[in-house]
Amino acid sequence: MYFIIANPAAQSGQQDNRLLKQLEAALSERQQPYFTCFTARPDYVKKFIKSMDRGGEINLVALGGDGTINNVINAIEDFSRVNFAFLPIGSSNDLARGLGIKDIHKDKTQAENIKKIAAGKVVRRIDLGLLTDERTGLSRRFAVSCGLGFDAAVCHEVNESKFKNFFNAFNQGKLTYGAIALRELATIPKTQAMIFLDGQQAIHINRLIFAACMNTPYEGGGFKFAPDASAENGVLNLAAIGDLSLAQILPKFPAAYLGKYYHFKGVHHSPFTKIQIKLDHPLWMHTDGEVARKSSAVSVKCLPRVLKMLI
């Protein structure tokens, strides 16, 4: 049985359901039963999965971007029974980029991905990450990355921006990110951070800009913040930047986009299986670009090979 979660507003400027119809046609051709739910709300996704649960394996397919995928993986309660796939039709699609899957911008037909999904064969297992707010005990999984500081603040402001839908309507959603990112860089609060890698190595940063825990190499729509990261190696990668002025930060962004910034002063990077980050005051935190709250103390760990993939 296939359960399809479709977010019709996921892709900048993409308002039709052409790809959904093609996926449904491919499943019908193989006489595979399916049920489709149109939603982007995480509480609805969870209720939908529970209501459709009839025992046995579930082929769960998400149509949307990284945020839609994040909602879906956080609605799964028993990963052993779920085979997962997605059609990457969002504006960023960093999970697809990190897994070597062609997104809507590189393959508008998505024919190859649809064919693999309809075949229903598990082709790999990937890691996920788990972010826990140590103040509240609340946890959330992520497929691409989680982070504290600048990147999370940008995500929060973008989601609240009244210009987001306007630019998305013209397939220019990244303009919103760019404008807000420049503003956030100029107003970063001074925040001290202590980072503990696997309970041992400690990194002290007097003025944290951001600390990202990466499951794949990319976040933020193609920034290669963790060029060594892989979702199939059982570890996550830290990418943290701090103790730099705005004038020092801006010239480094082109190098960061290409993943060639590790040698710069103020950059900290390392693989890990578990990490703790403690701040002297709370900052926004995100999972796959989804922002819920601020925190001053978090832990992050790798969940190795937990998600079975059809693509």
If you had to describe this structure to a student in words, what would you say it looks like?
By secondary structure, the protein is an alpha+beta fold. It folds into two domains: 120 residues, Probable inorganic polyphosphate/atp-NAD kinase, domain 1 (Rossmann fold); 177 residues, Tumour Suppressor Smad4 (Sandwich), CATH 2.60.200.40. Strands 1, 2, 3, 4, 5, 6, 7, 8, 9, 10, 11, 12, 13 and 14 form a 14-stranded mixed sheet that branches. A hairpin with a 3-residue loop joins strand 8 and strand 9. It is globular. About 3% of the residues have low confidence. Belongs to the diacylglycerol/lipid kinase family. Its cofactor is Mg(2+). InterPro entries: ATP-NAD_kinase_N, Diacylglycerol/lipid_kinase, Diacylglycerol_kinase_cat_dom, Lipid_Phosphate_FormReg, NAD/diacylglycerol_kinase_sf, YegS/DAGK_C.
Give a nutshell description of this structure.
The chain contains ten helices and 14 strands.
Throw out a few tags for this protein.
single chain, 311 residues, alpha+beta, Rossmann fold, Tumour Suppressor Smad4, 2 domains, globular
